[in-house]
Amino acid sequence: xxxxxxxxxxxxxxxxxxxxxxxxxxxxxxxxxxxxxxxxxxxxxxxxxxxxxxxxxxxxxxxxxxxxxxxxxxxxxxxxxxxxxxxxxxxxxxxxxxxxxxxxxxxxxxxxxxxxxxxxxxxxxxxxxxxxxxxxxxxxxxxxxxxxxxxx
Length: 152
What we know:
Elements: H1 7-17, H2 33-48, H3 59-71, H4 98-113, E1 123-124, E2 128-129, H5 132-149
Antiparallel strand pairs: 1-2
């Protein structure tokens, strides 16, 4: 099971991230590649507690959907709406300079994966309270989903 807790999986994500260019074209969705990078930065900041995303969880999201999203061997569906705080067309961080924002994302991935930052019990806006293991699995899947959105 791929997760940012595993060095080999982190390295694969970073390698793929570094293949993106400012003019990379999306295969689906509305975000530009630069907006997607900022969206992933904001999502990492939700993990660290720097950004508080509004709650959109319910019993089904916290149980069945969370389990399906994290543990079934399937790709996440396209077109799922995100919370306004991590939506670059709404309240999310606006893109500045592409290379700087990519570097910021790499640094955030390092913070959440390598350092002794603890996420146990921190609430995901849709899936509710999650363990450290679940957060790192979710982070891998989330970044992978958006990298595939741009063909990497």
